Amino acid sequence: MSGQRHDGLDAGRALAMILVVATHAAISFMITPIGWAIQDRSQHLAVDLYVWVVRAFAMPVFFWLSGYFARVVLDHSGAGGFVRHRMVRIAAPLAIGLVPCSLALNALWDWGRELAGRAGVAANVPKLHGSGLPITLGHLWYLYYLLAISLVALAASGLARRWRIVVHPGAVLAGGAVMIAGTLALAGELQLDTPLGFAIDPVFAGFHGAFFAWGWVVNAHPGMLVRLAAHAWRFAAVAPVLLLVLVGPLQAAADPATAGRPPLYAIAASGALSIALVAAFVGLCVRHATRPHPLFRLVSEASYWTYVAHFPLVILLQVVLAGVVIPGPLKWFAIVVMTSAACLASYELVVRRTVLRRLLG
Questions:
Q1: Residue ranges of the domains in the chain?
Q2: Mean pLDDT calculated for residue range 137-165
Q3: pTM, entire model
């Protein structure tokens, strides 16, 4: 640990951002129609499984990291500084990016729907109804919910200090695990759908808030991070077992004839899988990424900007390449490389050396 930096967690942030870009780039190659802007002519069921597994832990990792470093801000800056930091680093980028990103995504969804009707690339009806929708959160839901969860965490921390409440970290972690499984049970789903509207979904907020609280507690008790790294491979070994338990329920959920509320054991296994994957991911990064490559450092520094900027670029490239007759893996690789290169280059030129670094650096 050096000041507010941690080499292992820096590497974790970079890897998580790469996974998010790669997974968004893969969605158009899924067989299961999920209302995406376009469905590529190259599809494979393995992509469906890959996307489902990454969705189980990638964004929870970001909330874990956000909780970990949010407590650093509170300790160093106090409640007032914490609020100012959240306004500058979360609320301002959300307000600036919301309308442009929403309009861009609406236009891309319209274009994809037009191409689908003309070329028969996809037959599903998108969940986004193009320009007919008002402004929606899109991929910026992360900032919206992170802001709400951060303010709840600040209030809870203030009350605990004022009333001198001491909560054992084990109780917080146990409560978080119950919250993760409980929110999935309340929704009756193995994974939660991404919210697009501005009304806070308490189930969705509770699920990700549990990972935020986990990171917060680990920052307060540094020895927990050491233990997480020590047991990382054990968590990694548990994850495939949980995934095997979920194979049957996932197949049933993918078949319209058998789709319905999954059994409780599958919901519990899905929650446990997310916990195991987050613990394995964070622990392995802390354990092995002690001297990250300079490129990883750059990707980590640019991760915030990349998250905001990558999504419209990915959709644009998916729509452009959907009808091109080349192998799907090559198209996916091209989308990931071109999007990542554009985000890193624009970060270097537009953000890193300008006033925007205070917001998005």
A1: 7-360
A2: 88
A3: 0.90
